[in-house]
């Protein structure tokens, strides 16, 4: 249906329908149960015969009503003028907007007459007793035309001395004030013009009983329309009398005997070519509503129902009317479960409304159980308690298996849905070893907050790979196959949020490491934030850039403050691996000896001195990749704080450890001050290495005598090959 128009009589509609790529006008008198084409006028305005034969040719109407209340639009009718319809249209095989004219029907669309060659606005006067027509406002006019015989004859009258573009006409309400007001403009630049016409004088008297005649509503001669015989009282055409306020349009309405055309196909049925209503392919007439409870009765459809507002009686009514039958006792069937929004996702701590639907079964005697999947379940004795849905709030994120059970004495039915309850990720921390061994698996872990369960997707970007490794677990194992610095990024996706964190991992064939701890007073000044560790790390690295880049120190988060000191082989090592390992071992022994004797300390601020201790000597990466050590990431967290103090250790040994002294002599460098970058102002306290006490100097000399001969040749080789000390804070 392209357009539809309600014609003012109960059950009567005119519609434009598209069939076979053509738009045609159809009319119905029983609310769409039956449709037929409009019969074209027999003659034109000149009285010549029009040879238009159904169904190849018919009348087609434009059904657009006017949005302007002061214009009539392309079709109009009035309830107080039953059966009169005025419309713009054309005659032919289909609807066209070329060669249009004006047409009128006085008998509710059964017959039509041609009244104008051009489009007009037509208004009803005196409750339809007279018709006024004016050309469309695209052309200025001085004249109007009036008809007192339902459009059969029109008289022309002048209402303006100057042609007027008519923009509308208003008929004032009231039976005593018969005034119509035209408004428009003389030109497109002129002001609005109002012209009032009192048309009372054209009626010489009020209508009496002899001025009326009866009119029987019919459908091509069929007197029963919508189950009634309706008789209207209308003014005789051509009588110049005023109808008056006591005019009654319906004279009588008598109910008809019901016949087949008073009934249409019921829901789920469709009319076949032979005219019978049979079940559609998707409809099962044997299914009984779940509201039908044992011991009650229900209306079993015959496939037909009486057209709405049809007033017919008796006849075939009993044959087509649904029959009462006892509700059968049935097992539940067709149980379905959904959310009110139709989604399978929900936000944490928000109401989720579940809807339970049952196609078959006794709703009053069927027990419903709903398990929300989070340890909570509810039960209802019948479906009437849950018509508005069942609400639940999830307190944790995750994927929940929500199941429903419908059960009665004859059987049961179940259904399940999986609901994803999510909340946005607020923080992600990437845990990875600072140093990894080539061709050996390491664990990479992403810790998210708030904690999610199975609702987070992890994207691991490893090195220069163009495609990520995707996982639902926050930890993976990976093997680095080449030495050097590798950048690893993890992206975490949950709900509509994506966060990421990046770490750089040094990959070597072998290395040495020392676990460091500090005197407890350092914990008092540790705010345990990455910025503090990074700022202190940048200052110490800047101070030691002239020493070496072969040392890596990692200060771990948390307290007590801890760190790990990594000794790495030189990246351009030309000697064999065995000799490199021996060099790292000897350097490790020197550092361990100094740390074990408490020879390393630094001044954090005036009056606050921190001593560096050795905790343990390790020969493997901090994070072991073996499955039994999957918890070693937590050990890394507990030891990250060792970073800053181990740096100060190296700085102090520039003067106190024999091989550091040799390095200083070779480069003829002075001791450098270490200035924290936490605050770049001049008032920032300086962190400097302290002088050893006399007792410590004695101990150093004794240690120097023991090891000087042993490592003198090693140190010369070590520094000639520019072995670097690399300081790196978390």
From TrEMBL:
The keyword Ribonucleoprotein does not apply. It comes from the Eukaryota. Keywords: Glycoprotein, Membrane, Repeat, Signal, Transmembrane, Transmembrane helix. Residues 361-428 form the PKD domain. It is found in: Membrane. InterPro entries: Ig-like_fold, PKD_dom, PKD_dom_sf, Sortilin_C, Sortilin_N, VPS10, VPS10-sortilin. SMART domains: VPS10 (SM00602). This is VPS10 domain-containing receptor SorCS3-like. It comes from Oncorhynchus kisutch (Coho salmon).
């Amino acid at each position: 249906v392209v357009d539809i128009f309600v014609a003012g009589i109960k059950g009567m509609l005119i519609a434009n329908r598209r069939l076979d790529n053509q738009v045609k006008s159809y009319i119905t008198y029983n609310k769409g149960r039956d449709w037929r084409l409009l019969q074209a006028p027999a003659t034109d305005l000149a009285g010549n015969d029009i040879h238009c034969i159904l169904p190849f040719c018919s009348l087609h109407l434009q059904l657009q009503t006017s949005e302007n209340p002061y214009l009539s639009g392309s079709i109009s009718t009035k309830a107080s003028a039953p059966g009169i319809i005025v419309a713009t249209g054309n005659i032919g095989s289909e609807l066209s907007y070329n060669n249009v004219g004006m047409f009128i029907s006085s008998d509710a669309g059964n017959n039509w007459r041609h009244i104008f060659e051009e489009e007009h606005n037509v208004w009803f006067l005196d409750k339809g007793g007279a018709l006024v027509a004016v050309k469309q406002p695209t052309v200025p006019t001085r004249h109007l035309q009036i008809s007192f015989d339902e459009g059969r004859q029109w008289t022309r009258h002048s209402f303006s001395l100057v042609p007027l573009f008519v923009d509308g006409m208003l008929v004032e309400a009231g039976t005593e004030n018969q005034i119509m007001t035209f408004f428009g403009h003389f030109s497109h630049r002129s002001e609005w013009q109002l012209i009032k016409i009192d048309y009372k004088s054209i009626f010489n008297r009020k209508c009496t009983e002899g001025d009326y005649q009866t009119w029987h509503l019919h459908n091509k001669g069929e007197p029963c329309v919508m189950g009634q015989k309706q008789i209207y009282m209308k003014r005789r055409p051509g009588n110049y009398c005023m109808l008056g306020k006591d005019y009654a349009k319906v004279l009588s309405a008598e109910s008809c005997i019901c016949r087949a055309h008073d009934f249409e196909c019921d829901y789920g049925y469709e009319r076949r070519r032979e005219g019978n209503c049979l079940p559609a392919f998707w409809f099962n007439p044997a299914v009984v509503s779940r509201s039908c409870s044992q011991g009650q009765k229900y209306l079993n459809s015959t496939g037909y129902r009486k057209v709405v507002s049809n007033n017919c009686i008796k006849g075939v009514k009993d044959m087509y009317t649904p029959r009462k039958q006892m509700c059968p006792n049935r097992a539940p069937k067709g149980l379905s479960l959904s959310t009110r929004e139709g989604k399978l996702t929900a936000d944490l701590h928000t109401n989720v409304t579940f809807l339970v639907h049952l196609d078959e079964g006794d709703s009053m005697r069927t027990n419903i159980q709903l398990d929300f999947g989070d340890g909570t379940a509810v039960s209802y004795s019948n479906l009437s308690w849950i018509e508005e849905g069942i609400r639940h709030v999830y307190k944790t994120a995750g994927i929940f298996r929500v199941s429903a059970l419908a059960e009665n004495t004859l059987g049961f039915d179940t259904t399940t849905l999986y609901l994803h309850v999510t909340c946005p990720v607020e923080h992600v921390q990437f845990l990875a070893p600072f140093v990894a061994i080539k061709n050996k698996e390491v664990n990479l872990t992403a810790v998210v907050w708030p904690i999610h369960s199975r609702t987070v997707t992890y994207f691991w970007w490893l090195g220069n790979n163009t495609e990520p490794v995707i996982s639902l677990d926050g930890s993976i194992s990976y093997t680095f196959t080449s030495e050097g610095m590798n950048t690893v990024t993890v992206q975490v996706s949950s709900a509509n949020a994506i966060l990421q964190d990046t770490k750089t991992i040094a990959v070597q064939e072998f290395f040495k490491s020392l676990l460091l701890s500090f005197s407890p007073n350092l914990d008092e000044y540790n705010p345990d934030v990455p910025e503090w560790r990074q700022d202190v790390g940048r200052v110490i690295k800047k101070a030691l850039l002239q020493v070496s880049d072969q040392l890596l120190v990692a200060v771990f988060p948390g307290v007590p403050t801890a760190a790990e000191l990594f000794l790495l082989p030189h990246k351009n090592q030309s000697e064999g691996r065995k000799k490199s390992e021996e060099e790292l071992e000897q350097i490790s022994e020197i550092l361990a000896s100094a740390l074990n004797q408490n020879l390393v300390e630094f001044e954090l601020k005036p009056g606050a001195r921190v001593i560096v201790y050795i905790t343990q000597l390790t020969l493997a990466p901090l994070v072991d990749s073996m499955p039994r050590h999957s918890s070693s990431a937590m050990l890394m967290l507990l030891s990250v704080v060792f970073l800053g103090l181990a740096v100060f250790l190296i700085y102090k040994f520039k003067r106190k450890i024999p091989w550091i002294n040799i390095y200083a002599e070779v480069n003829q460098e002075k001791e450098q001050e270490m200035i924290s970058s936490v605050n770049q102002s001049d008032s920032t306290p300086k962190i400097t290495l302290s002088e050893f006490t006399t007792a410590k100097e004695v101990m150093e000399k004794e240690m120097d005598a023991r090891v000087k001969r042993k490592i003198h040749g090693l140190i010369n080789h070590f520094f000639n090959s520019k072995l670097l000390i690399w300081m790196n804070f978390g």
